[in-house]
Structure formats: C-alpha cells, structure tokens
Amino acid sequence: MKKIGFLSFGHWTPSPQSQARSAADVLLQSIDLAVAAEELGADGAYFRVHHFARQLASPFPLLAAVGAKTSRIEIGTAVIDMRYENPLYMIEDAGAADLIARGRLQLGISRGSPEQVIDGWRYFGYQPGEGETDADMGRRHAEIFLDMLRGQGFAQPNPRPMFPNPPGMLRLEPLSEGLRERIWWGAGSNATAVWAAKLGMNLQSSTLKSDETGEAFHIQQAAQIRAYRAAWKDAGHTREPRVSVSRSIFALVDDRDRAYFGNGQEEDQIGFIDERTRAIFGRGYAAEPDKLIEQLKTDEAIAEADTLLLTVPNQLGVAYNAHVIESILTHVAPAMGWR
C-alpha cells in the first residue's frame, strides 16, 4: 500500500489560457481541489511555497482553510524555505493550522531552492551569521523550529501578567502535540537526507537532486532513500520514518490528456541550480495506462517510498486536475499494488 497525494506549485497568470488568473483563484481552487481529492480517495494535498513569484507563498492560511473544509486527507507543504522563516512565529502558525485540521498537518521544510530574487531572505530580515552560508542559516532555523516543537518552556514569565500564568517557564502557544513527528525535510543531496534522518525528520525527495553519481535520476534517488533509512536506524529512532517522492505522472485516457501531455518528457534532464551545483531533474511519465504501469514498475525510487505526490498542472483548473488524480487512482494504482 502507498499513500498517494497531489502537489501543487500554485501558479497563476493573467493569460486567457489559464484557469488560475489571480492569487485569489489559486487559493480558492487549491481548497476546492483538496476537497475533490479527498472525495476521490486520495491521501494528501500538498502545496509548494515560493516567494516573490506568482505562486503560493504564505502556506498557513491555506493549510488552515483546507483543514477546516476536509476531514481525512493529509495536508502539507513541499517545501517551506526555512531561510525566510521566523521559527518561533512559525510554531504558532503551524500549531494553529494543525489543531484546525485535527492533527493532519504534514509539514515539508527545507533550506530552499534558488528564488526569484537575489538573496530574497534578506528582505525578510534574515542574514547568515558569521561563517554561515544561507543554507546553514536555513538548517539553523529548522533546528530551532524542531526544538520548539518539543513544547518545553523557555521564556521567563512576567511577575505581573495580564492573565494568570501556569507555573514555570512559558512555551509558545498553541502547541499541537504530535506535530514534531510530522515534519519532513526536502533533501536535495544524500548528505542532507542523512542529516534529516539524524534529527528525526521524515524525508521528502522531489524530481530534482544533486547529480552525485551520473546514474539515472530514479537510481540516485533510491540510493538517497536507502542512505536515509540506514542513518535513521543508526540514530536509534523508535518510530518508522516516512518517505515521499514526487512525480509528474499522467494516464492518457481521453483526448484532453493526449492533447496536453501526449508528447511528454521521456528522459532525465541535467542542469545547474546555481553556479556550483550540477543537478539532475527526473523525467515525467505520460502514457496509456497499460504502458504507464510498465514504465512505473522500473522506477526504483517510487518503489522505495511509502508516499507518492503527483505534481498537478494547477492552471488547467480543478475539474481537470481532479480527473488527473482519479485516473491514477483508478487505472494505475491498483495494478501497481498501491491500493
């Protein structure tokens, strides 16, 4: 069995060809798609976070709204760029959203990817410390966030407060118990996957990672997952970790599918996410269901993961994206043993 959810980047554009022409369109349609996905039997609704772009940015209002409108589906991010985050304020936002969702939040965080502007986190008031890189800063913010999720008091109470305090040092409120075990790290390399395992975070591995061996993307990603699981075991954690991968997968079952995705990407791509980092981008899958099933059986990383996130073309609208999800759940998942 495998959990299957969707991942939306939340793009909008004023183009007449887009059904998401404004930020309001994207936010409201994201809620509607999560509701539709839950009704179809999908397991997760996940959203990307980008700043300075016509894409979803502030996740917690959206996550809270989805939580209030649904009852079963997991709700998450992939990923929140921790270079931009105040980890203490994030504790309050995440706690509130998780309580509204009754404990269904699955927060993916990371040090982030290249953004739309140069050093965008500086505009948010953050700057790496002496000897730190921006990636180090993102990981430091993440460690503070994880520490605060333990719920230990750390702040000296006012002896003359407006309202009575509980005894001892004070913690941030509201705190949602159990959220600490539902934090995921988006790892772009084997080393950061191992680091995430040591800290007890679940693993999110997307369609991009550092090209560390020159092998096919799915083989490198599968090796990353195995390294993560080995590090998790070595760290002595008592619970089973979760691992997700994301893929663009389209079952071609009608003329719309063939028109949109009939000439899809069939090979991995190589590029550079910055001047130093050679990256490999995983291929997409688009084929008739019987052929698609055979292709997916050869993807080692999907086999290694317990959760699959389907990246969806959100600008094509809620109805079509619900169709994309339903096609996978109906025509592909049973044959793959995912259902």
Please explain how this structure is put together:
Helix 2 (59-69) packs parallel to helix 3 (87-100) and helix 5 (190-198) runs parallel beside helix 6 (217-235). The strands form 3 sheets. An 8-stranded parallel beta barrel has the order 1-2-3-5-6-7-9-14, surrounded by 7 helices. It has 339 residues and is an alpha/beta fold. The chain has helices at 23-40, 59-69, 87-100, 134-148, 190-198, 217-235, 255-261, 289-296, 300-304, 318-336, and strands at residues 3-8, 44-47, 74-77, 80-81, 105-110, 183-186, 202-205, 208-210, 243-247, 249-251, 269-272, 278-281, 285-287, 307-312. It contains 10 helices and 14 strands. The protein starts with a strand and ends with a helix.
Overview features:
globular; 339 residues; 14 strands; 10 helices; three-stranded antiparallel β-sheet; alpha/beta; eight-stranded parallel barrel; 17% strand
